[in-house]
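Folds abound. A case:
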Amino acid sequence: MVVNLDKSEALDRLRSARVARLATANASGQPHIVPVTFALRGRIVVTAVDHKPKTTGNLRRLRNIYENNQVSLLADEYDDRDWSRLWWVRADGAARIVEDAHERAEPLSWLLGKYEQYRDNPPVGPVIWIDIEVLRGWSYMGSIKPRADG
């Protein structure tokens, strides 16, 4: 059985996820998707450009948000052995780039609270702040196992 998650359950699952995918698009609609760490407070999602090596500081996700602030964040769980564990939550909303040190402080504290790895080496880049406008979630609530031949 497939069920659509209610808003509360969708937020709980999103909050507990450790990684999500952030989808952006430029002004002409060319999509771009990247995995991100994130934190959720109420109906606000934040992620930040962290210290992991990047080929450039001029990241496409940031350029896209400046051109088109509509984004999607997708978190999910998949289990080959037990499909009853399958679920996804998608948060669609308007994003903005936060570069001011004072404005970055609170959302960075959310990320530091969630990810121990950031406590000794907090993100130094811009914060992406997403106001969730639409929240959708789905869960498989059955006992069917995937076929072994896949």
Summary: The domain at 2-140 is CATH 2.30.110.10 (Pnp Oxidase; Chain A).
